Amino acid sequence: MNIWEVILAFSVVVLILVSLLSNVLVLICFLYSADIRKQVPGLFILNLTFSNLLMTVLNMPLTLAGIIYKNQPGGDQFCHMVGFLETFLTTNSMLSMAALSIDRWIAVVFPLSYHSKMRYKDAALILSYTWLHSVSFPIVAASLSWVGFHHLYASCTLYNNRSEERTQFVIFSGVFHILSFLLSLVVLCFTYLKVLKVARFHCKRIDVITMQTLVLLVDIHPSVRERCLEEQKRRRQRATKKISTFIGTFILCFAPYVITRLVELSSVVPINSHWGVISKCLAYSKAVSDPFVYSLLRHQYKKTWKDIINKILKRSSINSSALTSESHNQNILQTTE
């Protein structure tokens, strides 16, 4: 192994560990908090978390093995199964993010009718479509034997080595990326930009009220005025930062891999094998960022974790105090004897 392969292998190990830990934390929060379970977006986050966990447990270790041994891990049937799951889980993750953006759009743009438009039944229907959409492409690829070990990405994924079927595979791959990556990106951009528009409108209304209040309060201390203006500026930036994070992480993680796959099909530009694995690692990194972007950095999840930690610390303090009192009683008995 050269230095590049060592760095790539180490990067995959880090991705596996961080993804496993962060996604398990999301599951623990979901199981612990009844409030999180009651919310409709919790179903989409749960679906996304399971997809990320399966990707972490099944696909990432095999890519690591592919980098180290530079060969197909396991037999053909095993690789076909892993490639099938990789295609399904990647598409399912993308569509889950699109579903979450639709949920936010309805909640912000139509707040009064949100509970009637986005019920558990509606979320279940969206998830059913997500699964059907996601599973359709790997079924077609598997039936046509277009799944196998691809040395460029050191992974079991969509792959065709038969030149007579090249045109059909190019068409299939193009349609697949349009209806997975591009469709999800369009939905994300449309919904979150609508959300941003509404958020900016509300910020302007609050800014007008704040400025009117500051004008009326002539005797207000300058430091209080400055704090109000700083909060006004932070409020305007908050929504933009969040939406930029949602769309930006999606593009940053998935776009290099999708573009590389499409360029590879064109056979115009030769692709470096190290770049192929890097683009694959970037796609895997979405499983690492999703728990933080959609869950763990939110107030409700932070509160849940504080409750869990406090509960653990209370139990440990109770146990330690019980042990201390027990040992103290034993010492008293020994002295009396």
From TrEMBL:
Keywords: Cell membrane, Disulfide bond, G-protein coupled receptor, Membrane, Receptor, Transducer, Transmembrane, Transmembrane helix. The keyword Membrane applies. It is found in: Cell membrane. One of its GO terms (molecular function) is G protein-coupled receptor activity. One of its GO terms (biological process) is adenylate cyclase-activating G protein-coupled receptor signaling pathway. One of its GO terms (cellular component) is plasma membrane. It comes from the Eukaryota. Residues 22-294 form the G-protein coupled receptors family 1 profile domain. Its main location: membrane. Pfam families: 7tm_1. The chain crosses the membrane at residues 6-32, 44-69, 89-112, 124-149, 169-195, 243-263. InterPro entries: GPC_Orphan_Receptors, GPCR_Rhodpsn, GPCR_Rhodpsn_7TM, GPR26/78-like. The keyword Transmembrane applies. It is a multi-pass membrane protein. Orphan receptor. Displays a significant level of constitutive activity. Its effect is mediated by G(s)-alpha protein that stimulate adenylate cyclase, resulting in an elevation of intracellular cAMP. This is G-protein coupled receptor 26. It comes from Mauremys mutica. The lineage of its organism: Eukaryota, Metazoa, Chordata, Craniata, Vertebrata.
